[in-house]
Design goal:
- With 357 residues, the protein is α+β, with helices and mostly antiparallel strands.
- It folds into two domains: 5-227, 3-Layer(aba) Sandwich (Rossmann fold), CATH 3.40.50; 239-356, RNA polymerase II/Efflux pump adaptor protein, barrel-sandwich hybrid domain (OB fold (Dihydrolipoamide Acetyltransferase, E2P), Beta Barrel), CATH 2.40.50.
- 26% of the residues lie in helices and 34% in strands.
- A six-stranded mixed sheet has the order 7-8-9-3-10-11, with helices on both faces.
- It starts with a strand and ends with a strand.
- The structure holds adenosine-5'-diphosphate and magnesium ion.
- Adenosine-5'-diphosphate is lined by residues 13-14, 16, 34, 36-42.
- Adenosine-5'-diphosphate binds at residues 13-14, 16, 34, 36-42.
Length: 357
């Protein structure tokens, strides 16, 4: 019997066609990454049984959930799935406790037993005190914990989290990421985390599947993918400066392998945290003389390579840490940027996105 998720499905939604093959073994987390409108949430609806597939099959833990050729189609509540839908963490009319009990009731448990177990799951996510509250009375972080408790309470074979961070404001994210990471580490079934944020995807797992226009365009480890991008979307990810390090004090990051230090937003993580930091290439400002800007991160180094695409260019620098900047061709001309020239790269701390690993 094959474990994990095996999906090979096709469906249409007006003019949009989703055609996806996805295999996720038990215990493995796959990040499904793609631009807005690429079909990620449509795939979630299909796997959850809310949208019928037209061809192919969905098989989980050896059980056929859906196979149109044999007219097999399990109802949503007959699928062993824990799901966090995008933008809809919880049922607004139910208390937090009843939200978590809902799936247990659907599995046939009596009301008292379902509530007792739901309370245990709330406690597991340290939100046992909010059981009587409605979703509108919860903070973003509490709602996320309740939603994770709800998804996992049914002890599903498959965990599907669609943009689980999108409902949170920035202040809650570091904490929420930690909660999410622990929840994923504890869960033994197949896990699919859906996001349009490459840093989030890469921080949670090294198995990425890229969805574009309803199709999987590339999959593999992040390092392989960034080295050999096969679409302009992945190529745009490839320009991202991804750095690792340990927070020394609020606002200061010591990079791994002696690559220097970085000023980061002071509320991004706490001292001792291991983090990933990303700097978009558009956030790197280039100059050919020492910069006079107020940017706290300034690095000197030679221009290693200039790669032109359309009206823009990506300039890689032999700075410590190595950085890639993206500038217009006009800027290349105006600044006199050429290979081998010495240059300065500056980055504002506020432009650095930090993800506690
Ligand atoms: P993503 O989650 O990757 O942003 P979605 O799965 O939400 O993408 O949407 C994929 C495509 O499906 C959209 O481009 C749109 O054409 C179509 N779509 C989404 N929702 C609906 C809907 N309710 N009815 C019809 N088509 C839809
Ligand atoms: Mg979506």
């Amino acid at each position: 019997m094959r474990s994990g998720l095996h999906a090979d499905l096709r469906l249409r939604r007006d003019a949009f066609t989703l055609e996806v093959q996805l295999d996720v073994p038990d215990g493995v987390t796959v990040a499904l990454l793609g631009p807005n409108g690429s079909g990620k949430s449509t795939l979630v609806s299909a796997l959850a049984g809310l949208l019928p597939i037209e061809g192919g099959e969905v098989v989980v833990g050896g059980h056929v959930w859906e196979r149109p050729s044999e007219r097999v189609r399990l109802a949503p509540r007959a699928r062993s799935i824990g799901v966090m839908f995008q933008g809809l963490l919880l049922f607004p009319a139910l208390t937090a406790l009843d939200n978590v009990a809902f799936g247990l009731r659907a599995q046939g448990l009596g009301r008292a037993e379902a509530r007792r177990r739901a309370a245990d799951h709330l406690a597991r996510f340290h939100v046992q005190d909010v059981g009587a509250k409605r979703p509108s009375e919860l903070s973003g972080g509490q709602a996320q914990r309740v939603a994770l408790a709800r998804a996992l309470a049914v002890e599903p074979a498959l965990l599907l989290l669609d943009e689980p961070m999108s409902a949170l404001d920035v202040a809650n994210r570091t904490e929420a990421r930690r909660t999410l990471k622990h929840a994923l580490a504890d869960f033994e079934g197949a896990k699919v985390i859906i996001t349009h944020n490459p840093l989030e995807a890469m921080a949670l797992t090294d198995r990425l599947v890229i969805l574009e226009g309803g199709r999987v365009t590339q999959q593999g480890s992040s390092s392989d993918m960034l080295r050999r991008p096969r679409s302009s979307y992945v190529a745009s990810l490839a320009g991202i400066n991804l750095l690792e390090g340990e927070v020394e004090s609020h606002g200061r990051l010591r990079l791994s392998d002696g690559r220097g230090r970085l000023a980061i937003p002071s509320d991004a993580a706490k001292a001792g945290d291991l983090v990933l930091a990303s700097i978009s290439p558009q956030a790197v400002t280039l100059s050919m003389t020492p910069p006079t800007s107020s940017a706290r991160n300034v690095f000197a180094g030679n221009v290693d390579a200039i790669e032109i695409f359309g009206q823009r260019a990506r300039v890689s620098l032999e700075t410590e840490p190595r950085l890639t900047a993206e500038v217009t061709l006009d800027a290349i001309e105006a600044l006199g940027i050429r290979q081998g020239a010495s240059a300065w790269a500056s980055v504002k701390a506020t432009q650095i996105e930090v993800y506690a690993a």
